[in-house]
Write a structure and sequence with these properties.
8 helices; Elongation Factor Tu (Ef-tu), domain 3; SH3 type barrels; 364 residues; six-stranded antiparallel barrel; ATP binding; nucleotide-binding; MnmA-like_central_sf; Rossmann fold; five-stranded parallel beta sheet
Length: 364
């Protein structure tokens, strides 16, 4: 097959490309230029898709003996990922830009161009397992990225390959060293790739501006502080609230609700963060069709945690998820990913974007 290997400049995508070459496929490497400032350099483990990363990807392709190109997707990335990220925070949500990048860029815009050029699939260095259209967690649980791939449709998965998902990360690094790839010990990227400073609040503030509002106590209704915009807060946040001391009960306060229309940020006890029902929109089912009736599953609401057994059911408006155990810190804009436990790697059933998370206290 003709395979387009998406090469970020990191060790995972380099080994993924190498494995596809070893499998006998006709492989071409491509690095996506996603920054409007191509001179930007990586700072340690922060950022990606920089000028340095492009150079690392090219050197890896040279070692593998495959053609290599750089494709400019900066405008599409800004529109579909960065602008979406900013808009979601302005609306009081907590988005995951990696999901949107996979959905809109790597397995949509990139894959569409690849198919148009005669390629059969796109191979990436994501940690997940994919066989016969079934998406599973990676063997390395600490590196598993199936959560950020759960937004992919059955059609998108049919054009994807994840060659490193069956191997622990330390062995991937060892393999890279054996192959003579200079990125063998390159640090993994952390945080949000387009915010290399790590200061998300400053990044959002520069684009959204000042939109004053109040921090209000859930119990008393008292205004505890003023703030410059709801984009500076997320559900479950404890620090940086601008308030003095704990609540009247002597316990810490957390952000329990964000109301973008009024600019109100509500804070309360940890108990108020517990939810047992989630309604998710924009449902995607990896099999290509929704299940018939309720499904016993495990739901994950954050990229690195937030799991609970649940019963999920497809509806006309999305997915209704009843949690068998309460979860905390569930925010609108996050993805709710449904898994079916399996010894060979939990199977991804589907996902949806969280629209409503109902607190336990509101049950009737």
């Amino acid at each position: 097959m003709r395979i387009l290997a998406a090469m970020s400049g990191g060790v995972d995508s380099a080994v993924a490309a190498a494995r596809v070459v070893d499998a006998g496929h006709d492989v071409v490497g491509v690095h996506l230029a996603l920054s409007s400032a191509p001179g930007t350099l990586r700072t340690g483990s922060r950022g990606c898709c920089s000028k340095e990363d492009a150079g690392d990807a090219r050197r890896a392709a040279d070692v593998l003996g495959i053609p290599f190109y750089v494709w400019d997707f900066a405008d599409r990335f800004k529109e579909d990922v960065i602008d979406d990220f900013v808009a979601a925070y302005a609306a009081g949500q907590t988005p995951n830009p990696c999901l949107r990048c996979n959905e809109k860029i790597k397995f949509s815009a990139l894959a569409d161009r690849a198919v148009a050029l005669g390629f059969d699939a796109v191979a990436t260095g994501h940690y997940a397992q994919l066989e016969d259209g079934v998406l599973r967690r990676a063997v390395d649980a600490d590196k598993d990225q199936s959560y950020v791939l759960a937004v992919l449709t059955a059609e998108q998965l049919s054009r994807a390959m994840f060659p490193v998902g069956d191997t622990p990360k330390d062995l991937i690094r060892a393999e890279a060293a054996e192959r003579g790839l200079a990125v063998a010990n390159k640090p993994d990227s952390h945080d949000i790739c387009f915010i290399p400073s790590g200061d998300t609040r400053a990044f959002l503030g520069a684009r959204i501006g000042v939109r004053p509002g109040a921090v209000v106590d859930d119990d008393s209704g008292d205004v505890l502080a003023e703030h410059e915009g709801v984009h500076g807060f997320t559900i479950g946040q404890r620090k940086g609230l601008g308030i003095s001391g704990p609540g009247a009960d002597g316990r810490p306060r957390y952000v329990t609700a964000i109301e973008p229309d009024t600019g109100t940020v509500r804070v309360g006890s940890a108990e108020r963060l517990k939810v047992d029902f989630i309604h998710a929109e924009r449902a995607v089912w990896t099999s290509g069709s929704a299940p018939d009736g309720p499904v016993e599953c495990v739901v994950q609401v954050r990229a690195h945690g937030g799991l609970a057994p649940a019963v999920a059911e497809a509806t006309e408006s999305g997915i209704e998820i009843s949690l068998r155990e309460p979860l905390t810190g569930v925010a609108a804009g996050q993805a709710a990913v449904l898994y079916r436990p399996d010894p060979a790697g939990d199977i991804v059933l589907g996902s949806g974007t969280i629209a409503v998370a109902r607190p336990v206290a509101e049950d009737v």
